[in-house]
Specification:
alpha+beta; 4 helices; 5 strands; globular
Length: 123
């Protein structure tokens, strides 16, 4: 009996992937985002478009962060070549939040950290 319990636990642990925020692929990033926004992936095509752009070369190449705020989850796209003056900030429904919104300076900018990385642009 104990042997089956131990084998079951080992099987469960073997199926778990590490939660490494720096290596999230597109699929994993979308799963995390839709769970955080409590919606389906189909309702977040706008984010998938941003993630694809962030992963390609060009002016949009950069990282995307997922930040919990008092007004819900916020996504920040930060191009690698620019400071956060070029950041684009979005709510779960895809609405862009302007940089002059107090939420951006009070909660979003301080929330940008490696632990909140949703999608890292591939090297």
């Amino acid at each position: 009996m104990h042997r089956y319990l131990i084998l079951s636990l080992l099987a469960c642990l073997a199926g778990c992937a590490p939660d490494d925020h720096t290596t999230d692929g597109l699929t994993h990033a979308m799963m995390r985002a839709s769970a955080s926004c409590e919606t389906s992936r189909e309702n977040m095509h706008w984010l998938e478009t941003i993630l694809v752009q962030a992963g390609s070369e060009g002016s949009a190449y950069g990282n995307v962060y997922i930040i919990p705020t008092s007004q819900g989850t916020v996504f920040v796209h930060q191009p690698i070549m620019m400071s956060c003056l070029a950041c684009r900030t979005f709510a779960c429904d895809g609405t862009e939040i302007t940089l002059d919104n107090p939420l951006v300076y009070d909660e979003v900018v301080p929330g940008i950290s490696p632990s909140r990385l949703l999608y890292k642009a591939p090297l």
